[in-house]
Batch of 3 targets.
Target 1
Amino acid sequence: MEPLSEWESEPNFNLYENMSFKQAYRILPFAVCIVLGTIVGYFSETPLTVLCLLAATGAFVFIGMELALYVLLICLPFSFRYIIPNLLEIQTPTEPLLGMFCAVYLLKKILDFALGKQQRTPTFPFLLPLCLFIFVTFLSAINTPNLFGTLKGAVRYSTYVMFSLVVYDLVQHRQSLNRLFFASFPSAAIAIVWTVIVLFYHIDEWQWTSAYRSSPFTNYSVYGSFTAVFFLICLSRLLFDNQKYDRVMWVGWLICFGVGLIMCFSRGVWLSVIVAVGFMLLQLGKGFTHKKILFVGTVGVILLICLSLPGVYSAVLDRISTTVDFDYASNRARLLRWGQSISMFLDSPILGKGYGAFGMLYEEDVALVGSYIAQFQLGAHSEYLQVMAEMGSIGLVVWLWLNLAFLIYGFRAIKRIDDGFYRSIIIGLMAAEISLMVHFVVNNLLNGDAIGVPFWGIYGLLPAVVQIAERAEDIKNHTEQE
């Protein structure tokens, strides 16, 4: 019998963390001085409060990256936009934490390489397409109408993309996985309950974005997609994990996020959740027909009860009918943006017009869609078309590669992992990501932290969970052989 590999041993993890802490402790004063000095020297008008925020955030991340990850997830639904006059906007505290995560992560990798330390985790399975996507994001600046704006946006977007590497590197134990979920679920549930109360208060404006004022979310698309991520993970746990665990608690989570989804009025969210749930039901197989029937029947009864409420049926029916109504203002705006995306792509088919250029170049026809609508939502209303317009055919190919690599990796993992706990988490993460991928066909939501963080976090979390499951299986087989 061969001994367990070094990176499977728990004491080695602790040793690595102690060494990383000592390195961070020695480097921290120099790093903070360099960062603060650079910022003060370059931006003489930068508010002192922001400098203090960045310095404190950097120190916090250096000292405890895993703890900082949990803080980020707890604060995510409640982050607020802080505007620095004449400079930039920061989604606080999400984006400062993301930026520091990337800086610390890269610094640790450089230090490990310089000191000749062995990598403690296998190589990130999506590293090549991820790096290419970041590279193409910056390369698209060749054709941009605003070089500074594109580079600034590319840096910001790259921090979101690199978040997947941070999550993959930090979540390497089942204990870390449990802490991750219990840091994110209560915070998300509070945000959803808060929003549902606000929507009930503004029930007359239920189908409009204006109903979300005073809630943690800006519109129903962001709210619905965020809610769907947690709903699908809860549903997967209950459908696929037959082991002993607190089912009452998970049913409570499911009801909470399920009610939140019912209150969402986004057609894109409805479609994406239907596709994701269909994917999950296909994974049940022939031996679980009773679960399929129970789930479909329960959903049917809930929908019948909801649609029987006064005014709900007619509102939902009208909303569905607008999907093919070309006179509907939202549809006209979407078609105009799609047409503009194709036009921009044809002008620069290789590298596109530059990251963020769609908002710079697009001019909406107020006569067609109305002045109120023209003031907002300057995205292409499709993540795929926006990538195509801003980063050309090269960017679109790499973006599709990123998505397909994730799905192929997940389907292969489903076939070889039998443990109910890990299997349920893997299917739930895949369903959540599929729902976002489907919604991205008719909307672009990755520019915001409420969707960008879950999307890229799950992108790194899936391979981390798969490898935790495989290590657990290896340890189990090793123990049985002894």
Target 2
Amino acid sequence: MINIPKVKLGIVAVSRDCFPMTLSERRRRAVVESYRAQYGEIYECPVCIENEIHMRKALADIQAAGVNALVLYLGNFGPESSETLLIKEFAGPAMVVAAAEETGEDLIDGRGDAYCGMLNFSYNLKLRNLKAYIPEYPVGTAEECAQMISEFEPIARAIIGLNHLKIITFGPRPQDFLACNAPIKQLYNVGAEIQENSELDLFEAFHKHAGDSRIPEVAADMAAELGNGNRIPEVLETLAQYELTLLDWVEANKGSRDCVAIAGKCWPAFQTQFHFVPCYVNSRLTGRGIPVSCEVDIYGALSEFIGTVVSQDAVTLLDINNSVPADLYKSDIEGKYPYTIKDTFMGFHCGNTPSCKLTSCNMNFQRIMSRQLGKEVAKGTLEGDIVPGDITFFRLQSTADAKLRAYIAQGEVLPVATRSFGGIGIFAIPEMGRFYRHVLIEKNYPHHGAVAFGHYGKTLYEVFKYIGVDVSEIDYNQPRGVRYPTENPFA
């Protein structure tokens, strides 16, 4: 996977001047040793912070070491101002953990009171309008703190990625796709940049790539990926030309940013002018770590990017598309899986899901567009059933009045044949029917949702909190017995 930022963790311990600094230093070393033994490398800052002068020395040290994700460790109570100033002056994401007391045999000079210090730290953080990740229960042994740090790492990766992201768009949204509205103010608030381009710019760049010497190699790679599913081989060189166009555009336009996501126009004029559909190329770039959303869905691309950097795996963007027919449910699902028919739905898109996330795949024509425009200009989609297994369906969205909102729902793709077309799967999410009505409909979400392959709800929830989504605006599929605010209690 490319386009995913690298995280270099660094841990800095703090010590209140009325506590022995050696207590914090010893506890810090134990956390570092535990983390390295279980999870990997973490930079151990040798400076323990007792005052603002120490803070500046520690900051210079971790900056020189290339640390881009900070772990502030309260080995004892900690100096409130100095520790919060470190977070203020550090340029990247930060977390805070605190030491649990180690033994009832040493509660005189060996007691650190970090349990108390965490309270004062959080108060000072709010006073200075600062952000930091604080775990659900942030006080622990060396082993427990190491585990908490490991859970912070994908959160940090997402925050770093957003602060280095440029979203490149081509064209306005198609008519009748107002649901994918994209007020850009919140893109800047979460750290991303955006470059909006005309379809004509893309069209010109595509034609300039005609005869590119790299086309045969890319087309051969496509053929190898498709294997027996290569049903329209004559379109591969054209698709290769388009893929090179997008990749070269990214390199020429990402500027100071390290990461890129793309939101592209794919109908109706795309087919008539380019004479293919971009679905398969979109799938290939997404599979490599450069998310490409359909229908200029900017927040869809943003959501895909977050899912990619959190999971370090390919994602997809799907329509929450159609219900599962009763006869299919009865024959293939009922009694075999613990879901009602209202827990299930089909997630679909024309062909943008990477081949690695399909049970098998075929190059085909885009059936929906071909109904109006004909098969000849609708070649280039990737069809297949989505691989079964755990998934997280989620979306980060700006409302029409520019407020951030998000949902997260964990579930699975069932190993049940869809009997349909496109990139499609039968999804099962507990209490999906209620979630559909009282979150997706009630809160005006569009039909597109990002899919990460695995259960990443815990991490995504913390990412959304960190970037400023109010917790009252992060929705999830409520379990049975927990009522949504808009749910009729008498229903």
Target 3
Amino acid sequence: MNVFVIGIGLIGGSMAKDIKRISPDTKIYGIDTNPAHVDEALTLQLIDEKASYDDLPLADLVIVTVPVDVMLTELPKILDLVHDNCVVFDGGSTKHQICKVLADHPKRRNYLACHPIAGTEFSGPAAAIENLYKGKTNIICEVEKTAFKLQERALELFQKMGMRIRYMNPEAHDKHIAYVSHLSHISSFMLGKTVIEKEKNERDIFDMAGSGFESTVRLAKSSPAMWTPIFQQNKNNVVETLEEYIQNLEAFKEMLLSDDYKGIYNEMDSTNKIKEILNGIPLNEKI
């Protein structure tokens, strides 16, 4: 089987690692707009060969892990070039606009809209991790629009990687993911910004930052090139989540100003139930 990975970073590189483990005879081709990423992926043995779009007719499976704004233009081109028995899937964190762009594509049946909920704050080929997807949830949208035999090929791969599958429509996906992923990234970036602006002495930040700050601000290390298009594509849902979040922050501030410490205790106590909810989610899925 010939597998093409377009965008060789954490997500695509980790998939390449798993595919090599699952199916050692598979030949993996790499395409990336950054030549250094392709060279690094070759050195790390994530891929077997450099490739270009001209080689896509050879592909049996194409994994597209580029920023979501790039997907809007590149996925139609990729589908134009693949043969009829090739399955193309992505790992984008938004789904509504991507599915809308591809709705009338002649090879829509070759595309499977996916979002494996996995990752770290790091990027690039060196960030790739074997077994990153084990125990993770992979959300698949509009599965009925993908040819059944091509669905089966992708789903068999996901099963061998150890992923759990959930089916959801694109609109519901984008709304839910705004709360559980996109908002937490914004919170992390803005916490980091607040501390940097207030604590001008970088050594003070390094010396005084505890594990709580480090874990909360971890996502602020994520790639702005990846996350800005996500916020753009999911703007309406993200704004809604921000409004609710800001209301909760304002309410907390008012309780402090009025010395309502019983209210603060009750708010935190009722929110502690999040521990019970998250106990059912593997640690490496909580990003």
